[in-house]
Amino acid sequence: MLYLLILELIESYSFLNVFKYLTVRTGLAVFTSLFVVFLIGNPFIKYFSSRQILDPIREDGPDEHIVKKIGTPTMGGVLILIGLFSGILLWGDLKNTYIWFLIYVVGSYGLLGAFDDYKKVKYKNSSGISFKFKLTSQIIIALIGVVALTYFSENQDLKNLYFPFFKNLIINLGWFFIPFGIFIIVGSSNAVNLTDGLDGLATVPVILVSGCFAFISYVTGNIVFSEYLQIPYIKGVGEVTVFLGAIIGSCLGFLWFNAPPAKIFMGDTGSLSLGGSLGAIGIITKHEIVLAITGGLFVLEAISVIVQVISFKVTGKRIFKMAPIHHHYEKKGWPESTVVIRFWIVAIILAMIGLATLKFR
């Protein structure tokens, strides 16, 4: 909103031209969302604690979780979303189709996650809404979003699938793009949700992936850089950089309160919305496979759950002591801080590999 107002004043005040630069507005989005989360963080946590909006701990989880984490407020994703929307609504170009697509995805998945968290808090158990209802809702939300994107987007390459390391390997998905897009958004949302099980474990990888895609969206939306890197040029997608800046700022602010020992958990409100938005960004920038690389930690967490379920149903035996895989290492005796930091290191390595794919083609 503020950016649109500035555009109207530029002719009268030429010094405002600086706000037309994506890098400037991305930086402002980072600091705005960060400041907002810092500003309201403590009052928010105190209010949720006083209202007994507490995270129900899994009874089958590691024993020390019951001792250390019980009584911690949840639904911290609301805090993240407030910061995110503050940054993007102030500094984003609200005439951009991609921005509205991302606002729709992050807002809708945030509401679904909030409903799930509400059910957990109300009934004081970790079950929340049923898996069937959650998955069905995620698919419907993604379906509406992808169909709308297909209709309103002017990107001629939207239905193409590009492969890293190969210059000319391109597959036109045609109408299969719609179920493919749904799979990416829903899969990414659930993968981040499964990763969010330890203090700060999901937050830092989300920041890393967002940073990578801030660079990717910037160069993809720049005709000179995209031609140099031999990646598809997509007009208007550079604006996604501002959205990612808002994610980075709000997550950095949230990490201040979520760092071990966490004062608040993001809950499904945060993990579903952040994961869904990253999946949507992968689709917009046409770097879906690169998303799977940079967000490889999330993929690993999701695969560990799938493998565990299949193994138990087929053989009656579990491969891991507990899934997702971060709990497996806790069960093996790793301290929580060790698991978190080592997983962060893996996320950093995967993020660097993902960025390297832009050059090695």
Descriptive overview:
The protein is mostly helical. It has a domain at 22-159 and 176-287. Helix content is 68%, strand content 2%. The protein contains 15 helices and two strands. It has helices spanning 2-9, 22-50, 63-68, 77-91, 97-123, 131-152, 177-195, 203-220, 223-229, 240-258, 267-285, 288-294, 296-315, 325-331, 336-356; strands at 160-162, 170-172. A two-stranded antiparallel ribbon has the order 1-2. Strand 1 (160-162) and strand 2 form a beta hairpin. Helix 4 (77-91) packs antiparallel against helix 5 (97-123), helix 6 (131-152) packs across helix 7 (177-195) and helix 8 (203-220) runs parallel beside helix 11. It is globular, with a radius of gyration of 20 Å. It starts with a helix and ends in a 5-residue tail after the last helix.
